[in-house]
Amino acid sequence: MRTNLATQGRRLNRSAFTLIEIVLVLAIIALLLGAAIFKLTGVFSSSQKQRVVQDFSTFTSALNIYRMNAGTFPSTDQGLNALVSKPTTGRVPKSYEPTLKSEQLDPWQNPYGYRFPPQNNKGEPDIWSFGPDMIDGTEDDIGNWETD
User: What is the pTM of this model?
Assistant: First the structure.
């Protein structure tokens, strides 16, 4: 069996990637990852708003149970904390049971705003998140009166 050493040498040289090819592949991968991250930021923002809407549903259920026990919703001063621990001011329910295990924070780690009597809802308390800018009263606030 005869082997040609010159032919084998050429095959060995061609079996490796050049530095330019490796850098080019890494650049393409980085570009694709950058585009994917850019596209996913909108999905993440949307999921945070969805969570706020789900929290409104949880609060509504807990507040209705509280109202059945107390005869009314918690006042603005009592706030959503009345769902976690027995209020000490205002109208205190005679047969109090907590309806939430702990205080709920919005996706931006801020407490929710609460107001009763409401200014935006009819008959139900106003509940809102301060939104991504974490400042109350700005246009990015999310309120339960907007999700109906």
Answer: 0.69
